Fold this sequence. Notes:
By secondary structure, chain A is an alpha/beta fold.
Amino acid sequence: MKLDDSSLQKFGFIKRETLGSINIDPLQTGGRLTEAAKQALVEWGDGYSVCDFCGGVLDQIKKPPIYDFVHKALPEFLDCDEARVTNGARESKFAVMHSIGKPGDWIVLDGLAHYSSYVAAERAGLNIKTVPHSGSPDYYLDPEGYATAIEEVTKESGKPPALALVTYPDGNYGNLPDARKIASVCHQYDVPLLLNGAYAVGRMPVSAKEIGADFIAGSGHKSMAASGPIGVLGVSEEYAPIVLRKSKHNKVKEVEFLGCTARGATVMTLIASFPDVVKRVRNWDQEVENARWFSARLEEMGFIQRGQKPHSHDLMFFEAPRFYEISEKVKKGRYFLYKDLKARNIHGIKSGLTKYFKLSTFGLGREKLEVVADSFEDILKKYEDI
Amino acid sequence: MKLDDSSLQKFGFIKRETLGSINIDPLQTGGRLTEAAKQALVEWGDGYSVCDFCGGVLDQIKKPPIYDFVHKALPEFLDCDEARVTNGARESKFAVMHSIGKPGDWIVLDGLAHYSSYVAAERAGLNIKTVPHSGSPDYYLDPEGYATAIEEVTKESGKPPALALVTYPDGNYGNLPDARKIASVCHQYDVPLLLNGAYAVGRMPVSAKEIGADFIAGSGHKSMAASGPIGVLGVSEEYAPIVLRKSKHNKVKEVEFLGCTARGATVMTLIASFPDVVKRVRNWDQEVENARWFSARLEEMGFIQRGQKPHSHDLMFFEAPRFYEISEKVKKGRYFLYKDLKARNIHGIKSGLTKYFKLSTFGLGREKLEVVADSFEDILKKYEDI
């Protein structure tokens, strides 16, 4: 591409078409900015803005209060000994895997783990053993599966895995496994546990200590109303000297974070939204009630919710045999649902999906959820003769 | 910290005190947002906004035009075969080091390398050999030093280093080494070269191919008028299959980027500013002229510019013996300079520094630079009897 005036016109400011839609994409519902975060974005948008008063370490900056946020508020929020901000939940996971494991070591992942857990383990050179789930319709994860997996690794490789990970909840079915039991099983074998809470931290109450997780990863842009990419990482006292080790070349810089991570507006939006995020987490029971209400409405229409039932998270997976039937007959084929929802100002079910899809009810409130449920009903009616 | 209403008041929206100052911090001058980028921030601020139309890979998103930007515009701009967006220049460097080197291998760094190059090499498990510079006053880097360092590593470890890196320019003196010669020296030993262009890409013309660099790292928040953290990485055809290798667990995801990197507003601000960045790079001669003019004005006042002379970059290092003398006598001590500049609405020389400091003239224009130079003169006059 020649960079002339004509080709450069493609870039510059670009409008976001989905702005103003009811967005039920699980990636989006927990990442919508608060008003305070929108203000912070503009105020702190410039490149390295937070470094104006930096003495050399991001999380030691006193003004703005990044130090208080990272070293006082975050450990309390995650209920862990030490916390850091990272470039995202996947970067948090990689930092743990890369420091706790050595190339050739093994890691145990739950069968519902996010792809980024696999990729992070692969980048760290770790071999992967998965704990199977029970498959459709529940996708249940038996904590005892971790014992089996750990024993298999020990038998095959001569030593236990370096680390185990559980996804809490997973990003497909929104299932909340018994993480406390899993931690206890892992600890019987002296295997530390990393809790991937990308869909938990910032949405629902979660305590690393109550669960017994040695590490906890969260996502700012997925679930903490922050502008991405930004994540959080909690570490227990026991493993902090390894994961948070400092450079031998620069005594104040932490190796796994390459010195500094969220060095810009991202951390300021996380801080801006934090008071609201703390408050919304206290309101989690209402979110679960909304999710269950929505699930019940869809099931009345003939949809089938897969995964845990009754459901305990806003992220849900549905099977929609009737939508699939329609897609096989209508002119627009499998794109009909996306288009019919778009016409109703609803976004977030991936274009082309009809038979199976996931969605999230988080933060939408009963009124908007009624609009969504009514729209599903309308669409079914529209095609009832097909 | 108990997360009650009183402690949470510390967070939320926080004002940026330095907004509106003339900021001469080298970290800030190239990262100031354009108007288009400010608009993009607000439009795309929500968490995972760019993923609204994602089919699974960030750099394949067609709408917004991330695909065209990453695969067509960026390779042209960097003059390299393949390009990616990353979470920052240091993350670009780590991705290269981690994929090209194996733990225990060696890397050759220039003696003026940024701390993050050391930390990235350490994180990748690489041993470091540095190429010495000539010290004060020039800090000259002899390209032949790379030959010596490579031969030393080969002698000591039995094989050549996995990689060499040169900082172009360095972040202390703003020196531009003869990168083309360095590339040629490295290639004589079949050692690939990574150009750290965090202070070059987006400020001045730089071509990976003309230099002969196998890899080029740039920083969005440092030098491309983007909201951070975001960086760019250019890779040659020869090394692309290694650095950009895909996951064996998820065939579309690239391992070194953990699947996706700048998954939010950061990439949209980079794209928003890109047309202006392309244009400002064409205006580099004027920037160099401004830097030289500023340097000359300060030298007339008795300051001494260290590093290359005549200087060819906006980042400059000054020795200020007179400021140091003053600091030893005035009540405010070494904080006098910071405070006197603040009173004149100038920010960016680190609080407490007087004898040596660095600054940047980039993008300020002659008028603001005159204000800064006049302020230095005023401050000298203010204390002339001390």
